[in-house]
Amino acid sequence: MKRLSYTSFLLALVLFIVNCEIENNAVEIISFSASDSVALSGIGIMLYCEAEDGDGDKLSYSWETSSGTFSTRSDSAEWIPPFIEGTYLLTCKVSDGVGSSDAKTLTISVTIPTPVPVNGLDWTLTDDGLLNGPNSSNVENTGVTGYWDGSVENAQYGWNVTEQETPNREVIQSLQFKVEDSQDCGGENPNTQRGTATANIQITGSSPVNLDIDFSGIGEAQSAGYDLIKFILNGEVIGDGQAPGGGLGCVSDSVLVNPADQQTLEPGSHTLVIDFTTNDGMYHVDAYYEIELKLRIPE
Fold first, then answer.
1. Strands, sheet with 60-64, edge to edge from the N-terminal-most edge strand
2. Fewest CB within 10 angstroms: 59, 132, 232, 260, which?
3. pLDDT per residue over 100-135, tens digit each?
C-alpha cells in the first residue's frame, strides 16, 4: 500500500512538472496604430501592430477588414482603401502558434478624392542646341514619351517630365530642363541651348482653380543674365530666373529666382509656356532648372 502511494506521488510530481513546462504565457498587443485616421480611396495608409510574448515565441500577424487590400510586412501592413466611402474596422490579430493570441481593432474613415476639373495639362516640348539631338527627352516634340522619376541624377539632357500625381483636390507635376556642359568648361557643347514647354490647360468646371509654380536651379557663376527662364501665362510673364553670376568661371551656384505668385485660372482655356535659354554657349556646368506645378481646388 505504501509502495502504491509512493508511485502515485511520483506520477503526480511528473504531471506537475510537465504541466509547468508546457504552460503558455499570453500574447499581448501593446499598440495598434495607423498613419492616419482618415484615408482616401485608392491611396494606402500604414498600419503598425506591436506585440510581445512572455515565452519569446515567434509571432505571426494577420489583418482583417471588410474591404480594401493589404500588403503585409510582418508587424506592419499597407491598407489600400476601397472606392466606397464609409467607416471601416481594421483588425490586427497576433498569434504565437501554440494556442495564445490577441487582437485589436482600429476605425478608419474613407472618403473619395475630389478630382481637379482640368484637361490639357499635356506638354508639347521643344529644344534646340543639344548635341544629343533635337529634344533628347522627347524626339517627336508632341508630348512626353518617357517619364522622369524626379531625381536630379537620373535626368536626361533637355526636358524631363514626371508623371502627374493626383492627391485629393490637386494635380502635381514636375519638369526639368538639364543643360549640357559647355565646351569652354570641359564639356562638348559650344551652342546656345534653348527649350520651350507648352501646356494648353482647360478648366472644365464652373469654379476657378489655383495654379502654384515653384522653381529652383543651378546656373553659371560667371555672369548674371544667362541661364534664363520665364513662365508665361496667357501671354503675361508671371515669374523668371537667371544665373547668379559672380565672376567665378567654370563653377555653378543656385539661380536667382523671381517667384511666380499664385494664379487663379477661371473656367475656360489657358496657355502656360515655360521658356528657357542659356543665352550663350559658355560657362555652363551642371546647370538645370526644376519646376513643380500644382493645380489645386481652393478650400
1. 38-40, 101-111, 86-95, 60-64
2. 132
3. 999 999 999 999 889 899 987 888 888 889 887 555
Of 200, 218, 209, which is closest to residue 273 (Cα–Cα)? 200
| DSSP annotation string for the chain | -HHHHHHHHHHHHHHHHHHHHH--PPEEEEEEEES-SEEETTS-EEEEEEEEETT-PPPEEEEE-SSSEEEEETTEEEEE--SS-EEEEEEEEEE-SSS-EEEEEEEEEEE------EE---EEEEEES-TT-TTTT-TTSSS-SS---S-GGGPPSEEEEPPPB--TTEEEEEEEEEPPPBGGGTSSB-S--EEEEEEEEEE-SSS-EEEEEEEEEEEESS-BS-SEEEEEETTEEEEEEE-B--S--S-EEEPEEEPPPPEEE-SEEEEEEEEEE-SSSSS-SS-EEEEEEEEE---
Cell (9 digits) for 53: 510574448
Q: What is the mean pLDDT of residues 48-56?
A: 90
What whole-number distance in Å separates Cα of residue 69 and Cα of residue 227?
A: 48
Q: Is the model's pLDDT at 228 over the cut of 90?
A: yes
Tell me: pLDDT of 161 over 80: yes
pTM value is 0.72
Residue with cell 482640368: 118
pLDDT tens digit string along 186-197?
999 999 999 999
Q: Which of 292, 190, 283, 271 is nearest to 242 (CA)?
A: 283
- Rounded to an integer, the average pLDDT of 230-238 is 98
Instruction: Compute the distance between CA of residue 182 and CA of residue 168 in angstroms, rounded to an integer.
Output: 43
Domain boundaries, the chain: 25-111, 118-296
